[in-house]
From TrEMBL:
Keyword Glycosyltransferase appears in the UniProt entry: yes
Record keywords, A-Z: Carbohydrate metabolism, Glycosyltransferase, Pyridoxal phosphate, Transferase
InterPro entries: Glycg_phsphrylas, Glyco_trans_35, Pyridoxal_P_attach_site
CDD domains: GT35_Glycogen_Phosphorylase (cd04300)
UniProt xrefs under SUPFAM superfamilies: UDP-Glycosyltransferase/glycogen phosphorylase
Protein name per Swiss-Prot or TrEMBL: Alpha-1,4 glucan phosphorylase
Primary role: Phosphorylase is an important allosteric enzyme in carbohydrate metabolism. Enzymes from different sources differ in their regulatory mechanisms and in their natural substrates. However, all known phosphorylases share catalytic and structural properties. Allosteric enzyme that catalyzes the rate-limiting step in glycogen catabolism, the phosphorolytic cleavage of glycogen to produce glucose-1-phosphate, and plays a central role in maintaining cellular and organismal glucose homeostasis.
Signal peptide interval: none
Catalyzed reactions per annotation: [(1->4)-alpha-D-glucosyl](n) + phosphate = [(1->4)-alpha-D-glucosyl](n-1) + alpha-D-glucose 1-phosphate
Pfam families per the UniProt record, alphabetical: Phosphorylase
Highest taxon of source: Bacteria
Entry EC no(s): 2.4.1.1
Gene3D superfamilies named among the record's database cross-references: Glycogen Phosphorylase B
């Protein structure tokens, strides 16, 4: 949009008066933020309305992305950037003596997601709008987002994230569009005399779902999409007497808290209620819109809407859509099923068995009796139809209902026309191994969509210094088309460019060093290698492997106090699910090891270990630009994709990585010389499973280096871990090291050595850095959503 600095200053000062009866000299930071956000909202509102009108009139097909998590982080700068007014606003504020960064920091992170899955959903929201694709988000407006992490005595402590205390300037509450969602009670079918079976209900629990719309502003275009988040309330007509207090409490709880589990299934009733709540409300809103605005016959609905099931949490979309079509719109069963499969599509984000959702039949039957009937009927008809075609084994292995449980992945695959994995390796594993039986029956449904990132946030916003260097080298077209970063390759031997890249990195490292000083009280040397692992704490991600390597270096120094090594700062950021005991023990161990090493005078600052508390999107925006190395060290086959690997690459950090998830595609893009590869391949991992011949205790007994490192966990070397030390030690020995940490250790150490060697050659290192940036174009989520649009949703961009 067009905006002069003068106009902006006027708008901002005026808003301070109308909103807070104050001026720029007296306003507090919260007031300044709220006034600025309100001005920005005013700027995009006209575009939003116009785009809504365009969508209504053109009636073009739209996607609805159902996700139980979103993780947008802060929205102010992203909105400013996308509106094309970030520099104008920054300068305007400067004229008024206000620092934009100091205002931006006031906004709480919107953290209604756990990690990669939620962040991916938000990257998609940005990219969908930025590529002009007509799409909507659908989720839950949790009153409390992901917990805030404090580290106390080295332990993780969880505090509530009460992010709405000062209001949310971006959202619009639409009470007029509230919808009722019903749970429990009894249901039976009655013949209406015309051969139709009409469900009758008794004693249902009614909940009001109120939508809060948040605009998703496209990058320098005219698209503004909508992310709809639902809040649960008590229906207004209910008689609120004393006996209803418990009911009111239950209702409020539906949209009260985000479950803090990442890649882990927790089969609690409240979670199932949340899943149905946002699914039913979202689909009902779509149906209303279809009838009020699209006004096409119901049997054409698949030509106007696509519904995406982001992992299995919204899998109830399948039976709920059936219910709406069959019960509310009198569509015959077979026709309804055909429409459902055409409308739905599904993404799988993991093969870890502990993350696969299976709900007990009884629970679904009691909470959602009509949905249960529909699922039983779907299962029955499918079994009858397929038995003669594919045989009993395949049918049994792929049934929706098995052993008294409803398998949500099976429901999602069967009820949709597309199932995709999130990186090539992961999609291949789905086809060849984990979902092979489904692949036999529905080969045409399987496809790959390698993840991507909203590059604008991770470069233009998070790393202005690097962005400027890139502009000065190859011009600005990369800001619109990330593939143009490829132009950088022409400068890979250009000393001046390499020096500038290096200087930008140094600035970013200094900025992080200051933050570390402020938050952790640790002084780190910006000349050191910044070696970073930031992601949820999970055994399969193997933060422990990183820790063992740090201990190895530490003992090398203890054995040889004069050891010549490039100084390293190991930086961790990780939240553990509150109920994940083992993960919390690792956090405690990292912090105790940090204390031990950082305070050992003999180390002479050659190693520093920093655990930064409360890792979240906005902390990532400071840490990742400052990284020299990104640790992507999951056991091959376990990390479906990973997305921080792409953020590191884009910011000129080199990957220390296994051949897992999207790492493989990064490796292919940058070439062997610009990536530190180590570890078992997925075939080697699967061979161990097949032959059942992994023996971690043997490695411990036979490798003296590993022996000594592991003993440090139980012999008092590492202080204050008398509970955690043995737990970790036993997991690696007695319990046979589930994720082959010991097996990959030696090769990891080798790769780390070669990393150090390369870092000593500054030019060679920076050149590798440039090659990473230059080849990161493919990992823009603009590319990813375009692929979804073409291959899965059949939607077209505006213009
Ligand atoms: I399932 N993922 C996640 O963050 N939470 C989950 O509950 C599940 C998956 C992640 C995967 O672990 C990552 O490898 C992947 O990059 C991300 O989803 C986005 O696809």
């Amino acid at each position: 949009m067009k905006l002069s600095k003068k106009q902006f200053k006027q708008d901002f000062e005026q808003r301070l008066i109308t909103k807070f009866a104050t001026d720029v000299t007296k306003a507090g930071p919260q007031e300044k933020f709220a006034a600025l956000a309100s001005v920005v909202k005013n700027y995009y509102s006209k575009i939003w309305q116009a785009d809504n009108e365009y969508k209504d009139e053109s009636k073009k097909k739209q996607t609805y992305y159902f996700s139980i998590e979103f993780l947008p982080g802060k929205m102010l700068k992203s909105n400013l950037l996308n509106l094309g007014i970030l520099p104008t606003v920054r300068e305007g504020l400067e004229d008024l003596g206000v620092d934009l960064d100091e205002i931006a920091i006031i906004e709480p992170d919107m953290a209604i997601g756990n990690g990669g899955l939620g962040r991916l959903a938000s990257c998609f929201m940005d990219s969908l709008a930025s590529t002009g694709l007509p799409a909507n988000g659908n989720g839950i407006r949790y009153r409390y987002g992901l917990f805030k992490q404090k580290i106390v005595d080295g332990y993780q402590v969880e505090l509530p994230d009460s992010w709405l205390d000062n209001g949310n300037p971006w959202e619009v509450r639409r009470s007029d569009k509230a919808i009722e969602v019903r749970f429990g009670g009894e249901v039976w079918l009655e013949d209406d005399g015309k051969g139709n079976l009409i469900p009758q209900y008794k004693n249902q629990e009614r909940v009001l779902a109120v939508p809060y719309d948040t605009p998703m502003v496209g990058y320098e275009n005219t698209t503004v999409n909508n992310m709809c988040l639902w809040r649960s309330e008590v229906p207004k007509d209910l008689d609120l007497q004393f006996q209803n207090l418990e009911y009111m409490r239950q209702t409020a709880m539906l949209s009260s808290e985000l479950y803090p589990d990442d890649s882990n299934y927790d089969g609690r009733l409240l979670r199932l209620k949340q899943e149905y709540f946002f699914v039913s409300a979202g689909l009902q809103r779509i149906m209303r819109h279809y009838h009020s605005t699209i006004k096409a016959p119901i049997n054409q609905i698949a030509e106007y809407i696509a519904v995406h099931i982001n992992d299995t949490h919204p899998a109830l979309c399948v039976p709920e859509f059936m219910r709406l079509l069959v019960d509310e719109y009198n569509v015959p069963w077979d026709r309804a099923w055909d429409l459902t499969v055409k409308v739905m599509s599904y993404t799988n984000h993991t093969i870890l068995s502990e993350a696969l959702e299976k709900w007990p039949e009884d629970m679904v039957k009691t909470l959602l009796p009509r949905i249960y009937q529909i699922i039983v009927e779907l299962d029955r008809r499918r079994t009858a139809e397929l038995l003669p075609k594919v045989g009993a084994t395949l049918v049994h292995n792929t049934r929706i209902i098995k052993d008294g449980q409803i398998h949500m992945a099976n429901l999602s695959i069967i009820g949709s026309h597309s199932t995709n994995g999130v990186a090539k390796l992961h999609s291949d594993l789905l086809k060849d191994v984990e979902l092979h039986d489904f692949y036999e029956i529905y080969p045409e449904r399987f496809n790959n969509k390698t993840n991507g990132i909203a590059d604008r946030r991770w470069s233009q916003i998070a790393n202005e210094r690097l962005s400027t260097v890139i502009d000065e080298t190859i011009g600005k077209t990369w800001r619109h088309n990330l593939n143009d970063l490829k132009l950088l390759e022409a400068y890979k031997n250009d000393t001046e460019t390499l020096e500038r890249l290096d200087a930008a990195k140094f600035d970013d490292k200094q900025r992080l060093a200051e933050l570390i000083k402020e938050r952790n009280g640790i002084t780190v040397n910006p000349e050191a290698i910044f070696d970073v692992q930031v992601k949820r704490l999970h055994a399969y991600k193997r933060q422990l492997l990183n820790v063992l390597h740090i201990l190895k270096l530490y003992f090398d120094i203890k054995d040889n106090p004069e050891l010549d090594m490039v100084p390293r700062v190991f930086i961790f950021g990780a939240k553990a699910a509150p109920g994940y005991h083992y993960a919390k023990s690792i956090i405690k161990a990292i912090n105790e090891i940090a204390g031990m090493i950082n305070n050992d005078p003999e180390v002479k600052d050659r190693i520093k270990v920093v655990f930064m508390e409360n890792y979240n999107v906005s902390l990532a925006e400071v840490i990742i630009p400052a990284a020299n190395v990104g640790e992507q060290i999951s056991l091959a086959s376990k990390e479906a994709s990973g997305t921080s690997n792409m953020k590191f690459m884009l910011n000129g950090a080199l990957t220390m990585g296994t051949l897992d998830g999207a790492n493989i595609e990064i490796f292919d893009a940058v070439g062997a010389g610009n990536y530190f590869k180590f570890g078992l391949t997925k075939d080697e991992v699967y061979a161990y499973y097949k032959n059942n011949n992994y023996n971690a205790r043997d490695i411990y007994e036979q490798n003296p280096v590993i022996h000594r490192i592991l003993d440090a966990f139980i012999d008092g070397t590492i202080p204050n871990i008398s509970m955690e030390g043995p737990e970790i030690f036993d997991s690696l020995t007695t319990y046979n090291d589930e994720y082959f940490v010991l097996r990959d250790f030696k090769d990891y150490v080798r790769a780390q050595k070669s990393l150090e060697t390369l870092y000593r050659d500054k030019t060679a290192w920076t050149k590798a850095t440039l090659m990473n940036i230059a080849n990161s174009g493919r990992f823009s989520s603009d590319r990813t959503v375009r692929e979804y649009a073409e291959d899965i949703w059949y939607i077209k961009p505006k213009q």
